[in-house]
């Protein structure tokens, strides 16, 4: 089987681009500029996709009617929030890192409302383009198995958070929404819907995140 170097490069960017940018730019994860640099990842991926001759549909850009779009966004958001509520007692029982996650979210949320909207929108757009729009769709086309492709991309997304910014227990909390979002994408195969669901979930989370306590240094955190 002939290996497409553009595909290999695109997958490498999708899976490692967010981490790589933090090394290249030596970023402070709580700075808005740090989140602005995340747009470099989808920019590179779109350039790679154009070189491959891919169309927007090949990257999951399927919208449908405005009413269907809004309905799916509403359902997706309810499913995502509902899953978090239902699983929260389980994570609490096994020590699922809620304190670490809340501390990280509080530090991310230590900005203006406009900053929170920007951070949430950036995370939802850039991460969905990378992991679902490019990686999942390309792996699904390569393997012929969207579920297998989704398993790979969801795993890569979760492992990408395992660093000094998030503790292993906090990553456990991050894993379940990643699985839910991937499942929703596999069901609808609509990138705009999942961008909206992801961004809305992050924005709401940041708006209602607890405030940073001055007497306790919260661990540095970043969505990716």
Main attributes?
single chain, 224 residues, mainly alpha, 72% helix, globular, disordered C terminus, membrane, hydrolase, endopeptidase activity, Rce1/LyrA-like_dom, protease
What are the SSEs and their pairings?
Elements: H1 5-25, H2 32-36, H3 40-52, H4 66-94, H5 98-108, H6 113-143, H7 146-159, H8 168-188, H9 191-207
In short:
This protein has nine helices and no strands.
For the report, how would you describe the main beta sheet?
Answer: none
Residue ranges: pLDDT <50 for 5 or more in a row?
214-224
Helix fraction, binned, reads: over 70%
Mean pLDDT: 84
Radius of gyration using CA atoms only: 17 Å
Shape verdict: globular
Order of helices and strands: HHHHHHHHH
Class based on secondary structure composition and strand pairing: mainly alpha
The total of beta strands comes to 0
How many angstroms separate the termini? Answer: 33 Å
Domain CAAX prenyl protease 2/Lysostaphin resistance protein A-like: 117-204
Protein name: CPBP family intramembrane metalloprotease
Transmembrane segments: 39-57, 69-91
Pfam families: Rce1-like
